[in-house]
Design brief:
Layout: E1 6-15, H1 21-31, E2 35-46, E3 51-56, H2 59-70, E4 74-80, H3 86-98, E5 103-106, H4 124-131, E6 137-138, H5 142-149, H6 159-166, E7 173-176, E8 187-194, E9 197-204, H7 214-227, H8 232-248
Parallel strand pairs: 1-2, 1-4, 4-5, 5-6
Antiparallel strand pairs: 2-3, 7-8, 8-9
Helix pairs in contact: 1-7, 3-4, 7-8
The structure holds pyridoxal-5'-phosphate (PLP).
Length: 267
């Protein structure tokens, strides 16, 4: 019998406008030639301008989706995104404490680009203390890092001070995304901390009107690249380049913050 194809799973929220969340993750998996499966944790009604409503799913249906996918498909790496509240976050943590053979790439989603709160405040401690220790890599932006550390981070923080602060977060690998640091500079520096080693990845800063779903697409691209047997550093470097090109070729679909173009290679 033929071996099963590798699949990548996203556990995240649905974005009705298709730019972020589950939809961005599945487009990313497809663009990177990995079969994509999804477990929906919440449904949002949104467009490029705003998130109008977010409704979380029950644990019963989330768990049923997880069981259905993981009992059949050949999954190596899982991307986790929007979790909406403390009870979903706790249940997901319990689930992956028991099922710990997957490389989890966790995007600690807290706010949308339009500033809508996608994770209840009281869930942040659960995320930090229960779910993050199950992850292989977390990918916070500046605001998410500040929420996890419960303090402001200065744009000009030194690498060693940042490394020291990251010790409060129990994850072996942390990618601190640079997009929200030094916003008026033309270069973005993403910092990948692998235990005590730091790898800096510089990219050109492009038009900020095409950044809806960049965090989702980045974490799912890393998960896809890990599934394709890349080591962590090359998985991250390739994913950053994918998102960077996606922003450069961004598509205007609405009047607000528009999505990246996941399909730029075919155009
Ligand atoms: N997940 C969902 C379902 C969302 O709707 C959003 C933003 O709207 C995000 C995650 C985070 O998006 P971004 O990748 O722009 O940080």
């Amino acid at each position: 019998m033929k071996n099963k194809h590798i699949s990548c799973l996203t556990v995240a929220g649905s974005d009705s406008s298709g730019g972020a969340g589950i939809q961005a993750d599945l487009k990313t998996f497809m663009a990177l030639n990995v079969y994509g499966a999804s477990v929906i944790t919440a449904i949002t009604a949104q467009n490029t301008k705003e998130v109008a409503v977010a409704k979380s799913c029950s644990w019963k249906i989330i768990q049923a989706q997880l069981n259905a996918v993981l009992s059949d498909l050949n999954v190596k790496s899982i991307k986790i995104g929007m979790l909406a509240n403390a009870s979903i976050t706790q249940n997901i943590a319990n689930y992956f404490q028991k099922n710990n053979k997957y490389k989890i790439i966790l995007d600690p989603v807290i706010y949308s680009k339009s500033n809508f709160c996608l994770l209840k405040r009281n869930a942040i401690q659960t995320l930090k203390n229960k779910l993050i220790p199950c992850a292989f890599l977390i990918t916070p932006n500046k605001k998410e890092l500040e929420a996890l550390l419960e303090e402001k981070i200065a744009d000009n923080i030194t690498d060693s001070d940042l490394n020291e602060k990251l010790k409060k977060i129990k994850c072996p690998n942390i990618l601190v995304k640079g997009g929200h640091f030094h916003k008026n500079k033309t270069i973005v520096i993403d910092k990948l901390f692998i235990k005590n080693q730091l790898i800096k990845i510089s990219s050109k800063r492009h038009n900020q009107n095409y950044t809806h779903g960049t965090g989702c697409s980045l974490s799912s691209a890393i998960s896809a690249n890990i599934s394709l047997n890349n080591d962590l550093t090359s998985a991250v470097k390739k994913a950053i380049s994918f998102v960077n090109q996606g922003i450069l070729n961004g598509i205007k679909i609405g009047d607000g913050i528009n999505p990246i173009n996941h399909n730029y290679k075919n155009q």
